Amino acid sequence: MPRRISIAPHLSTEELGRADHQAQEGLESRQYQIIWLLAKGKTTEEVQEITGYSRIWIYELVKRYNYNWD
User: Fold this and answer.
1) Domain boundaries defined on the chain
2) What pTM was computed for the model?
3) How far apart are CA 53 and CA 14, in angstroms?
4) Coil, strand or helix: which one is 54?
5) Is 25 helix (H, G, I), strand (E, B) or coil?
6) How far apart are CA 22 and CA 70, in angstroms?
7) In sequence order, which residues have a C-beta less than 8 Å from that of residue 5 and are 6 or more positions away?
8) 24 exposed, middle or buried (CB, 10 Å; 0-12, 13-18, 19+)?
């Protein structure tokens, strides 16, 4: 079974969902959606299918979210 990506608990899944819906720009919304889906337990492959983003970009986004939180 593939290893799941760990999402740092900066925001709850509910807060991530709200941030996705409240985002003013499409890119910001999509990025929150990716983090939200992963936080809800979706696999990288599922997130790829839902969003159309590559595995490499998903990993980079998670890395930024986990380590560059202000």
Assistant:
1) 13-67
2) 0.87
3) 22
4) coil
5) coil
6) 19
7) 38, 44, 58, 59, 62
8) exposed
DSSP 8-state class, residue 13? H
Q: Pull the structure tokens for residue 64.
A: 């930024």
Cβ contacts of 4 within 8 Å, gap of 6 or more: 38, 41, 43
Instruction: Write the pLDDT tens digit of every residue in 20-57.
Output: 889 989 899 999 999 999 999 999 999 999 999 999 99
CB 22 within 8 A of CB 35: no
Backbone angles phi, psi at 4, to 5 degrees: -85, 150
Residue that is written with structure tokens 């890119």 in the block: 27
Structure tokens at 47: 């997130």
